[in-house]
Amino acid sequence: MPKGHFLGDFELLVLAALVRLGDDAYAVTIKHDIEQRAKRPASLGAIHAVIGRLTDKGFVALRMSDPLPVQGGRARKYARITAAGRRALRESTAAVARMIEGLELGARP
Amino acid sequence: MSRAHFSGPPRLAARLVALLSPAEDRPYLLSDFEEEFEQRAKAAGVSAARAWYWRELLRSAPPLAARRARLARARSALDRSKWWKEALGDVRYALRLSKRSPLAPLAIVTTMTLGIAATAAVFAAANGVLLRPLPFPESERVVRLGTAVPNGSVAPSVAYPDALDYRRLVHEFGALTLFARNDVTLQHGPDPENVRALQVDDAYSRVFSLEPALGRLLAASDSVYGAGRVAVLSYGFWMREFGGDRSIVGHTIRLDDEPVTVVGVLTPDAYLFPRESIDLLTPLAIPPHSYMKNRGALWAGAAAKLRPAVSEEMAQRAVASVGDMLSREYPVSNHGLGGRIQPLREVVVGSVRPMLELLAAAIVAVLLIACVNVANLILGRAQARSREFAVRSALGGSPARVRRQVFIEALVPAVIGSVLGLVLAPVLVHLLVAVYPDALPRADEIGIGAPVVLFVMAATIAAAALSCIPAARRVTRFDLSGDLRAGKGSGSRGERRASRVLVTTQVAMSLALLFAAGLLGETLWRLDGARPGFDPHRAVAFHVYVPSSRYRSVADADRYFDRVLDAVRTIPGVSVASTTTLLPFGNCCAFDTFIQEDLGDQGPKNPQAFISVDSPAFERALGLPLLRGRSFTAQDDSASGRVVMLNAAAARAMYGNRDPIGQLINWNGQPHWRVVGVLASTHLTELSDEMKPVLYIPEGQAARRSRYVVVRGDAPANEIIAAARAWLREIDPTIALTDVATMDQRIASSLGAERFRAVLMATLGALALALAIVGIYGVVAYSVSRRTREIGIRLALGEASHEVRRRVVIDALRVASVGIVIGLVLALLGGKWLAAFLVGVSPNDARLLAASAVVLAAVVAATAYGPARRAAKVDPMTALRAD
After folding, report:
1. Are residues B584 and B510 in the same domain?
2. Hey, are the CB atoms on A77 and B28 less than 8 Å from each other?
3. Which terminus of chain A is more solvent-facing, meaning fewer CB atoms within 10 Å of its CB: N or C?
């Protein structure tokens, strides 16, 4: 497996968020999901950068929505996980799981 | 101030977000920021939301900046690879095009090959000889020490006591070495051999950074007079003479019939001065009561290594002040003498510099003509394809893109040509070294190395760039619709101007080269016809040295020469044989001062002359006319009154119109040498020299061990030489006969430099002319073909065909005339530069200038006549229908 296919920590979180959010995944919803579940700060800039990177790797496909013709209608860049992205997510999390299996890591926070 | 603004996201922060985000993400990122801001403003108030906005901006900045940098890198890599892909495509296209119409590319490649090979060879020579420091460590710090003499020149030697003072007083010198040539005869193998030996002191190896490959170098103790005789062999001599036998160290060899112990062998890369071809070094041991210890006896060569950080000027000032001090302290010997240093490299290559500069200028001119030709060919091709370029432009090919294509089409054949040129260059270097008179200094250092390859790469790119300029200008400045519509027209004004520039340049350059060749040729012709002052035909001369080890006294040596002369006279066909110590075009030169007894001692104004010590009948052997009085006879010996002869130059300088016969002079500390005869003046070393004064002394009154034997006879020279060699071997097999040549050969080889220059310039001139003919033919033929329709109309309207021919030729001449005028100016400028090489011809010789101009005009007319004839044969109907 080429080096680029190993997911970084933050990439993993973003891909997981994409799976959960389905069709409604864009930077703001992704940010909320990560901050609520993973309890980790996720800046909009960082999310955009990571989505860009994952797109380059082929793990994410994009869909642009033009501003809706209503008050407050927004331009949004929706992201969707691809089959390759799912595979990468599966393999990376499985690797983590295998690595920590049986380890005593102390009390959960 | 609206409320919307007050409740909105901070403007500056929003602008920064826009600035930071990659272009394609910008609207979405801004919208995302705004959406989150609004949610937060609703939940926690505007100011909290604003604070969040700023914090979020700061958190977002690093990943966004990283992302942008990454995208920029990827994009520029993409652009580069696209550039290379396109350039490669251009290369492929150029090659494919060449395959389809190979004639023009072939001409370009050939022209470039010749131009680049010649340029590379000359650059290699210039680099090896002129630019690189001498090949030994710290060579740039080594200077030669010489003596400035009253007539303004610098003698390449110093007096021994002076040298010791310089060594003691000039602190800028880290080391000062003294040396003297002292050739010896080696007995090894069947025939004795003349060996080039140099006597040196122990500082020599420090100045020239010598290392022993075997054994040791000379030590200070070796130079003590009376110490055991030792020698250090050069590597080449060791290999040649002793086959690299390592056991030679510690053994004795026989030099001048005396045993000498070999103590060491130098490394192969040892640099020896004053000649690199020195065979062995022996210690410089000075006998206690020798004249060598006199001040005023300038016999020692001297070289010094400057201390680090001492400049040439500093050392020169120090040397000059010591020299002044010496001439004040020893007015008798040192009056008017001074010390002078010169960097060693200048001493070694000084005389080649103007020659190589001349060569370089000529080659650059030829390369320029070649470039012009190539430019012409490329322009022609570009014009033929103007429709293609117009289409490319119309389809959106940018001017830069089209220019690049033109450049690459010029570069491809230029690169091929330069690679072939580099292959050819070593051959030319060999040729250059072989044809150079009396061995180009440092010739073995000339090679095609990295600097040459770099130079050629630069020259290739420059040549390609230079030669595609007209075409590039042409294809990016055409009239689009005109080119798309028209096939062949009569040629635009720009085109005509471009080809005029080409023809002008070529004509001007070739005219200048032709004129230079003419000047040098005339010089050679004049010198070849010059009379040396004696009859060189049917005379042979060789050098013989009789060592004191075998012939203890000079009288013994004299008897040896008598036996040799008696034997040589018996050779069939020999009419005269004699000896002299001053052979014209042979060795040079013993020079001395003497006193005219009618004027008395005039100190520094005493007459000076070359000294020639001669046997009876030497003037007949040399074919030197006796103008007045008598010559030497066998009776002029130590028992009879001292006699001398003068040459005409000396007689005129000393006595003016008075009769010199019977006058007395004081020479060599001896009074009353009576002048008995006057001989014709001769050139001594070069036909271009003025004839200098010579004082002739009879051998019977001042015998010498080192003489030239001169033999005149009707038998073929090689038979005389073979017979003489046999006789010498029979008389004494340990004595060698060296520097064997006929007098004709000696004079011819003295003209080597002139012949080299003339032949070289003539070759380059011819090359330039040939290239120019090709170029002019191309331009005229092309312009005629563009005017086919016009000519057809003229013919149809009844113009005579000879009129058409005349018009084409005159048009060509009109264009060439500008080139001729510029060429004449260039020729005059170049002539000034050549002045140093010219004899008997002025650097702005009107006759040669006119001749060059006429030749060029004739060549242009003849070249234009071919296309003109074809133009006149055009069938009007075809011409009018065409295209």
Report:
1. no
2. yes
3. C
